[in-house]
Amino acid sequence: MDVKLSFIFASILLTAASSSVYERDEVLRIFPRNAEDVRFLTSMEEQPEISLDFWKLPSGPDNILDVHVPKASLSHVKDGLTRQGIPFSVLVDDVGLALQQHMRTNRMSRERSRMRRDEGFDFSVYHTYREITDHMRYLADTYPEIASMMSVAATYEARSIMTIKLGKPFSNGTAKPAIWIDGAIHCREWIVPATLIYAVDRFVRQYGSDPTVTRILDDLDLYVTPVFNADGYVYTWRSDDTRLWRKNRAPQAGPCVGVDMNRNWDSRWAEGGSSHDPCSLLYHGTAPFSEQETRDISGFIWAHRRDIRAYIAVHSYSQVWMAPWGHSQNRPPGDAAAQDALGRLAVETIKSVHGTDYVAGRAMETLYQVSGDSQDWTYDKAGIKYSYIVELRDTGRHAFLLPPDQILPTAEEIFPSLLAVGEWVLEH
Asked: Which Pfam families match (predicted)?
């Protein structure tokens, strides 16, 4: 074996053999039967000594929760669920082992990719924040007539949150209708930036040859921000033990760090489905838009609200396409039918590629309320009719640790759904 390869694989195996802070933690799949069960689970999440991490909140018709439980809390949580009669099963029996296997696979795939770097940007592997933004700059430099880089926001650690604007300007200089797409506000959702940078690449490279892409970029502007939570995303690459970080990196009270930026928007802020505890993974911050990132990006969206016709916040996991509301089960009067129709079209388009089933619905057709989220703000305050949250693959087998061999299939099925949204906006 090549000496370089021997060193690489030895390093990988050594890393995999080391212990993890998540060793023998479990992910439980919980099946709440009613709102009382959800309140019980929420009460446990609010006990900092238990340190629950809700990986999947109830969303869509399955209404299940996936909860990462530290090994020290397992007996307490399982006993509590049993006493309450709440059904559950073990989804992941050793989070530390699953994480090490995921990171080992990721390192190996990246090393193989480096050996064929002359083939260009490799969409079949996960990329660092710098690699993603460098490719965005490359596309903007290579296709300046339809792509330009923008820094629309800054982070606590003084990084620029990079957005790429796609679209051919109108010859008379007037503003075009637009779509805003962002991802990785929860930074551990690595499949999201991987999917969005693929979509950006396809848009610019297929302009002029694909009639649908050409029409969309001729008549619309697309603002795409693959990594909303830049500080957090960089942090998830620091070590195996930081891979599951969710929030931003702004210091809070005491030893706590970070705000869940999808609970920090000024729409029903702090009303439910978030936490007042600065150490909680669902911490909503000290006030609406307390975070630099949400202030800056909401400010940009607000300034362009008359042009932005659709807003898509991309997350993982669950395979759902959700319209408002997150805070209420009431359907938006007047807009619900059109929102539902576009949602159904999007999931049908996704299914047509690889047969993957996504569910179209509403964010709170469930037992769990979410407040202060971006989608409710863009619809409620900015008036963007077609505001959606999209949760990518999978449904829980790999969860946030989706293996690299699923990156391209995920990206390939999502790109046509974005084309469908663009066509819908132009026709309606």
From this structure: Peptidase_M14, Propep_M14
* Residue 4 confidence (pLDDT) above 60: no
Q: How confident is the model over 229-264, as pLDDT tens digits?
A: 999 999 999 999 999 999 999 999 889 999 999 999
Residue in 207, 162, 159, 210 with CA at minimum distance from that of residue 183 = 162
DSSP conformational letter for 293: H
Distance CA 28, CA 101 (A): 19
Amino acid at the residue 199: A
Is 391 among the catalytic positions?
yes
Q: Is the CB of residue 318 less than 8 Å from the CB of residue 391?
A: yes
**Range from 110-114, 224-228, 240-244 carrying the lowest mean pLDDT:** 110-114
Of 189, 391, 412, 413, catalytic: 391
Please provide residue 297's backbone torsions phi and psi, each rounded to the nearest 5 degrees: -70, -40
The pTM is what?
A: 0.93
H helices present in 182-222, as ranges: 191-206, 211-219
* Integer Cα distance of 366 and 60 in angstroms: 6
For the chain, list the domains and their CATH numbers: 24-93 (3.30.70.340), 124-427 (3.40.630.10)
